From TrEMBL, chain A:
Taxonomic source organism: Actinacidiphila rubida
Classification lineage: Bacteria, Bacillati, Actinomycetota, Actinomycetes, Kitasatosporales
Domain ABC transporter: from-to ranges: 10-237
Keyword Transport attached: yes
Protein name as annotated: NitT/TauT family transport system ATP-binding protein
Name of a matching Pfam family: ABC_tran
TrEMBL record, chain B:
Annotated keywords: Cell membrane, Membrane, Transmembrane, Transmembrane helix, Transport
Chain positions covered by the region annotation Disordered: 1-54
Coiled-coil intervals: none
Descriptive protein name: NitT/TauT family transport system permease protein
Biological source species: Actinacidiphila rubida
Family matches, as SUPFAM superfamilies: MetI-like (SSF161098)
Gene Ontology, cellular component aspect: plasma membrane
Localization per record: Cell membrane
Predominant location: membrane
Taxonomy, superkingdom: Bacteria
């Protein structure tokens, strides 16, 4: 699946981000270097306050690094763009638009004609299984359906890179597993690079080809754990001893870091 | 209402999975409604009730309009009772009704209502249009906000009525000063609400639009405006209230017709009946316009999750 010999799709080069706070600076991300290959599925896991969301937002172009740079497809990231889809934990659906119009949003601002827009939106909606709810408003949807709509909205503009910021964090575990399977299923059928931030170790291992474990204060890469389990992954994968071993390994990497006090946001 | 045809009509009937319950239809607007009916939290009608505590189910769900009418009838009855016992020379409903019919026959009531309505509409329209414009600019550009905010805050503390003398001196005694003070009243209420709406737009929604490829103009037209719409509509309703509150006083300025003028005129003749006709007319007109705005608000903001 992953081709790490060709030039990386996403390259974090010595990237850092500091926020001014009262009486000094808070270093959210401290000189992180990381390459993500074409079609790779990388998860980033770590304690809260370790800068994993900041790292993702820098790749999205929503946060500007204070040092270093993020390079996507050989070009330095200077702002957000439709080549990098972002899924937010809070769904961020436009509540005044129906599911279909939400999904059409990116196509509409790109000036895609009505018929083509509709076709591509319906395709994306069908892909996430929301076909019966295309005309529903977000307020009538459950959390899982909202997030599926957000994912369809990102798929519709067909980005090369999908940046997901704890997308399933607010969902119940049953829904979460469903959406994980669905995500892996689409990912394996399409050519997309995914960076997926989570605080759930099991989720991190289940989805990823590589798990990046971050440490807090300052936010930095602590360890990188390869997940050599074959795709497609199934229920059996979750129950296998290999999976358990990897999960334990990542778990201790996350939880047995040098002790840090409760992180300030 | 915007370029993005955001408010889709045919929705709301869809089956709901495990999400929040569908809007019960009559969502509470952000502005408290003067509801005469005894209201014990109508919105929570679907919540399970403790057994054997609440009133019988049938009695509990009297439709609100019925209660509204009942309450109105009771009010009129109390009024008639008070008048019949000669409280302070208060005219009764039938005397006021007779006077209203007389005034309708000779055309004065119609003329006065139209004159007042024209002033309110002109001032209100000018005020809200400018307020929405200025409010958006203030919310979007910190520089504009810093430049405008002192003036908005300063003039907000001055009741528009206090400006009437200034308006008369500067603008004479024609329609201009009357419309001006109404304009100011409507403008000041709406501009603050619009500003709040723009400033309060969920940052994540703007981010979501930008990562989907939207530039500033598209973000503004397709995200900021619809997201701020509920605030603007509430501001407009408050502005409308201020406009009606101001019109009567504005008609003190050498008016020849108008409900305020008529009431002033009647006062010199101790003509309480006419004063009451004017009062009721202002109340009814204000209520009708408020209902129209509320209707618009419901249509335009039905996407909101209401509690």
């Amino acid at each position: 699946m992953t081709d790490r010999t060709s030039p990386p799709k996403i390259s974090f080069r010595d990237v850092g981000c500091r926020f001014p706070v009262r009486g000094g600076h808070f270093t959210a991300v401290d000189r992180v270097s990381l390459d993500v290959g074409e079609r790779e599925f990388v998860t980033v896991v770590g304690p809260s306050g370790c800068g994993k969301s900041t790292l993702l937002n820098m790749a999205a172009g929503l946060v500007t690094p204070t040092s270093g740079e993020v390079v996507v497809d050989g070009r330095r990231v200077t702002g957000p763009g439709p080549d990098r889809g972002v899924i937010f934990q809070q769904y961020a659906l436009f509540p005044w638009l129906t599911v279909r119009r939400n999904v059409e949003f990116g196509l509409r601002v790109a000036g895609v004609g009505a018929a083509e827009r509709r076709r591509r939106a319906d395709e994306a909606i069908a892909l996430v299984g929301l076909g019966d709810f295309a005309d529903a408003l977000p307020k009538t949807l459950s959390g899982g359906m909202k997030q599926r709509c957000a994912i369809a909205r990102a798929y519709a503009v067909d980005p090369d890179v999908l940046l997901m910021d704890e997308p399933f964090g607010a969902l119940d575990s049953l829904t979460r597993v469903q959406l994980q399977e669905q995500l892996l299923d689409t990912w394996s059928r399409q050519t997309r690079t995914v960076v997926f931030v989570t605080h759930d170790v099991e989720e991190a291992v289940y989805l990823a080809g590589r798990v990046v474990v971050m440490a807090a204060r300052p936010g930095r890469v602590h360890r990188i754990v390869d997940v050599p389990l074959p795709y497609p992954r199934t229920e059996e994968t979750r129950l296998s001893p290999e999976f358990a071993a990897l999960r334990n390994e990542v778990w201790s990497a996350v939880h047995h870091q040098a002790p840090v006090e409760a992180p300030a946001r | 209402m915007t370029a993005g045809q955001p408010m889709d009509a045919a929705v709301g009937r869809e089956p709901v999975m495990d999400g929040p319950a569908p809007d019960p239809g009559e969502g509470a607007a952000s502005v408290p409604e003067p509801t005469p009916a005894p209201d014990d939290g109508e919105g929570s009608a679907s919540a399970p009730k403790p057994v054997g505590v609440a009133a019988p189910h049938g009695a509990r769900r009297v439709p609100a309009p019925v209660l509204n009418v009942l309450s109105l009838a009771a009010g009129v009855a109390v009024w008639a009772l008070l008048a019949a016992h000669g409280v302070g020379g208060l005219p009764g409903p039938e005397a006021v009704g007779r006077r209203a019919v007389e005034m309708l026959r000779d055309g004065t009531l119609e003329g006065d209502m139209l004159a007042s309505l024209r002033r309110v509409l002109a001032g209100f329209a000018l005020g809200t249009v400018l307020a929405v414009l200025v409010g958006f600019l203030m919310g979007w550009y910190p520089v504009v906000r810093a430049l405008c905010e002192p003036y908005v805050q300063f003039f907000r503390t001055i009741p528009p009525l206090a400006l009437i003398p200034v308006a008369v001196v500067l603008m004479g005694i024609g329609e201009t000063p009357k419309i001006f003070v109404i304009f100011l009243a409507a403008f000041l209420s709406t501009v603050v609400a619009t500003l709040q709406g723009v400033v309060g737009v969920d940052r994540t929604l703007i981010d979501a639009a930008r990562v989907l490829g939207a530039r500033d103009t598209a973000v503004f037209l397709r995200v900021v405006i619809p997201a701020a719409a509920p605030f603007i509509l509430v501001g407009m309703r408050i502005g409308l209230g201020s406009a009606w509150a101001t019109v009567v006083a504005a008609e003190l300025i050498a008016a020849q017709e108008g409900l305020g003028f008529r009431m002033q005129h009647a006062e010199t003749y101790y003509d309480l009946d006419t004063i009451f006709v004017g009062l009721v007319a202002i109340g009814v007109l204000g209520l009708v316009m408020d209902r129209l705005l509320l209707l618009a608000e419901h249509r335009l903001t039905r996407w909101q999750e209401r509690r």
